[in-house]
């Protein structure tokens, strides 16, 4: 689900014949001419895989996700992003499991589309934005859920059969976002599950099926506005994720603290391995927030946001 923390892009016209990219809080800066973007697109299009593509590049790999998006925008969609400076900032905690990379990639694309007065189909915008996550996470399948959620806002579901789907659900919920400290990369935790699946397919499939069941039940509870049932699904899901080995001691401490403090539900967010835990809470949450702070956690208030990046194209 989309939350009321945002990534923001400001696009300004320049007299330069380059595209400038600037994310001060991440110390990311780059400048690319049209010919350089064309060469980058040629390399991206002919890659064997993402790792092969990265190995061939000589530019800062922190700015590469955005340069790759711009290169494909030019090479495939014939939208010239040069002559613009894109400055970005994220209110979303970085590298914590809250999809900050997907949000930044999405606003980067939307900002350039607005500046160049270009239009693409929703599916094209989402796939183009996913290039950022593909490069960051070294995975062709990355960003399918996160980018769709950043683009549409509200609630998004995903299945391998039907892909990402925005759900017509208007249930407003209150969340606490609990920072449990550093996290392992998503590539690391996904790789761990893949290895587990390889070594013990039957057990891993059983856990994954149970996680799927939690998701289906949780979605139904959300539609019915039954927050207690939704919270139970979150706790159940967390236990299953622990069995998969993608949780961490700090995440489990946060979830346990949230449960003792009366949260409806709590679980890890994103790829796990540390980072953010989310807790579903009642409307009045000051005491719970105070209790979690006293346990040593940094906690943010948030709610579901029904405004995604698409809203700024309409």
Q: What would you note in describing this structure?
A:
With 314 residues, the protein is an alpha+beta fold. The protein has 2 domains: 7-160, 2-Layer Sandwich (Ribosomal Protein S5, domain 2), CATH 3.30.230.10; 174-303, GHMP kinase, C-terminal domain (Alpha-Beta Plaits), CATH 3.30.70. It is 46% helix and 20% strand. A hairpin with a 3-residue loop joins strand 5 and strand 6. Helix 3 runs antiparallel to helix 5 (122-137), helix 4 crosses helix 5 (122-137) and helix 8 runs antiparallel to helix 9 (227-244). The longest helix has 23 residues, at 201-223. It is globular, with a radius of gyration of 20 Å. The mean pLDDT is 92.
> Approximately how much helix is present in the residues?
40-55%
Sum up the overall morphology in one term: globular
Mind telling me the CATH class of the largest domain? Alpha Beta
Number of DSSP helical runs: 11
Number of strand elements: 10
Side-by-side strand order of the widest sheet? 1-4-2-3
CATH topology of the largest domain: Ribosomal Protein S5, domain 2
Q: Tell me what the CATH architecture of the largest domain is.
A: 2-Layer Sandwich
Mean residue pLDDT: 92
Which structural class best describes the helix and strand composition? alpha+beta
User: What portion of the residues fall into strands of 2 or more residues?
Assistant: 15-25%
Give unreliable regions as ranges: none
Alpha-carbon distance between the two ends: 21 Å
How many separate structural domains?
2
- Main sheet characteristics: 4 strands, mixed
Radius of gyration: 20 Å
SSE order, as H and E?
EEEHHHEHHHEEEHHHHEEHE
């Amino acid at each position: 689900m989309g939350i009321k923390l945002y990534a923001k892009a400001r696009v300004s016209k320049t007299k330069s014949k380059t595209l400038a990219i600037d994310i001060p809080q991440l110390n990311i800066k780059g400048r690319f001419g049209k010919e350089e973007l064309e060469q980058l697109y040629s390399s991206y299009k002919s890659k064997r895989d993402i790792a092969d593509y990265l190995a061939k590049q000589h530019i800062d790999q922190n700015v590469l996700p955005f340069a790759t998006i711009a290169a494909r925008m030019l090479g495939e969609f014939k939208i010239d992003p040069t002559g613009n400076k894109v400055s970005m900032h994220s209110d979303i905690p970085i590298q914590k499991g809250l999809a900050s990379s997907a949000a930044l990639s999405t606003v980067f694309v939307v900002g350039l589309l607005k500046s160049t007065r270009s239009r693409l189909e929703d599916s094209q915008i989402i796939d183009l934005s996913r290039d950022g996550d593909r490069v960051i996470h070294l995975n062709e399948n990355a960003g399918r859920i996160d980018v769709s959620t950043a683009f549409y806002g509200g609630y998004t579901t995903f299945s391998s059969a039907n892909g990402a789907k925005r759900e017509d659900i208007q249930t407003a919920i209150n969340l606490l976002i609990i920072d449990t400290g550093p996290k392992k990369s998503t590539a690391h935790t996904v790789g761990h599950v893949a290895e587990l699946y390889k070594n013990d397919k039957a057990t891993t499939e059983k856990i994954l099926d149970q996680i799927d069941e939690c998701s289906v039940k949780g979605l139904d509870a959300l539609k019915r506005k039954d927050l207690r049932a939704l919270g139970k699904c979150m706790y159940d899901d967390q236990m299953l994720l622990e069995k998969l080995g993608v949780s961490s001691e700090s995440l489990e401490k946060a979830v346990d603290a949230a449960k003792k403090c009366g949260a409806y539900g709590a679980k890890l967010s994103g790829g796990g391995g540390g980072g953010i835990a989310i807790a579903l809470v009642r409307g009045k949450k000051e005491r719970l927030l105070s209790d979690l702070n006293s346990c040593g956690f940094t906690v943010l208030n948030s709610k579901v946001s029904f405004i995604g990046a698409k809203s700024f194209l309409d």
